[in-house]
Amino acid sequence: MTAVPCSRSLADIRAVQADNLDRLRDSLQQVNIKDLVPLLVARNVLKSYEMGAVYAKGNSEAQLDALIELLKTKNHWVGPMTDALIRNGQAPIAKLLLQMQQAKA
C-alpha cells in the first residue's frame, strides 16, 4: 500500500502566510495602506468595519500593523493582496509575496 500525501492543514497554511506577512512588513512600509485596503474590501477579504479600524490608527506604521494582524486571521488574502499591490505600482513587492508563497508550497 502506498502512502497518500496529505495536503497542509489550514492552520499550517495560515502560519506560513502570517510568517510571510511579517517578512514583508519592511517592504510594505513604503506602500500607502489606504491604497490597498479599499481593494481588499472590494475583493471581500476585509469588511468595511475592518477598513475603518485600520484607518482609525494614528499613523501609517500603526495602520500597517493593524492590516497585517487582520490579514493573519483571513484565509484567502494572498491573491487579492497581490492584485492590490500590482494595481498600485508595487509589482516588486507583489512578486516577492508570490515567491514567498511558492517557496513554502
Automatic annotation (TrEMBL):
GO terms for biological process? Answer: regulation of apoptotic process
The signal peptide, as residue positions, is none
Q: Which Pfam families match?
A: CARD
The record, for InterPro entries, names:
CARD (IPR001315), DEATH-like_dom_sf (IPR011029)
What Gene3D superfamilies does the annotation carry? Death Domain, Fas
> Which parts of the sequence belong to the CARD domain?
25-97
Q: What is this protein called?
A: CARD domain-containing protein
State the organism named in the record.
Caenorhabditis auriculariae
